[in-house]
Amino acid sequence: MTLLRDEDLAVAFDHASRSYDALVAANPGYHAHLRRSARRLGLSDRTEGLRVLDLGCGTGASTAALAEALPGAEIVAVDASAGMLERAAAKRWPQGVTFVQSSAERLAQAGVRGPFDAVFAAYLFRNVADPDAVLGAVRAALVPGGRLAVHEYTLSGRAVDRAVWTGVCRGFVLPVATLLGDGDLYRHLWRSVVEFDTAGDFARRVRRAGFTDVRVLPLPGWQTGITHTVVARRPGEDTEVGR
Ligand SMILES: C[S@@+](CC[C@H](N)C(=O)[O-])C[C@H]1O[C@@H](n2cnc3c(N)ncnc32)[C@H](O)[C@@H]1O
Hints:
Blueprint: H1 6-25, H2 30-39, E1 51-55, H3 61-69, E2 74-79, H4 82-89, E3 97-101, E4 116-122, H5 131-141, E5 142-153, H6 159-179, H7 183-195, H8 199-208, E6 212-218, E7 227-233
Parallel strand pairs: 1-2, 1-4, 2-3, 4-5
Antiparallel strand pairs: 5-7, 6-7
């Protein structure tokens, strides 16, 4: 199968939105890891008045992690899938959280404009057709010194981590997703991770896009060597990123 992109991917997520929250609830550490990555933006000590973009917010799991890590921040949560967004918007949110339907590639056309103090993207970048273009747009939308945290399935490059990823997908994720009628999306998930950058390659991609202080931070549990937070900063102000 080829990877799903753009409209095909949005339609697949529309369908999967019905069971997305239940599936991620069965994934140990999913929400705790998002909260850890949100804290790794390194902004938790001055959150009031911050403007943060949650790119690829889905049903709002990453948005909730940001709202907890950054109380009082204005959070603009964006997703291409109407179905995922509908689930997100139906939840209870603190003041200052808004949802916008847009692809990451066409933020300006959807009226999503910077500057943002931080951009968070959880499980998004494997899905976009041109990650370099999206990173460029993200950089342009950040204030000088603004923070980026990308929380992503980015393999370590070690054969054992790739084998664990394939084992989890074949042994649990794909059988369940196929029963739910979402087999194509979760086959896309498996393959997009295997074919995407390793964590080190993604960090180099982020540097090439003009970010500084780029660091790859691990996450624990079965996701060790499989899921990482890549934190970075738009050049322009001398502040520390990641914890
Ligand atoms: C795996 S979900 C992750 C959702 C959420 N960030 C979380 O942590 O649970 C990926 C989300 O990215 C969205 N997405 C994929 N490609 C996109 C694009 N090019 N522009 C905007 N959203 C996109 C999908 O619709 C989906 O809701």
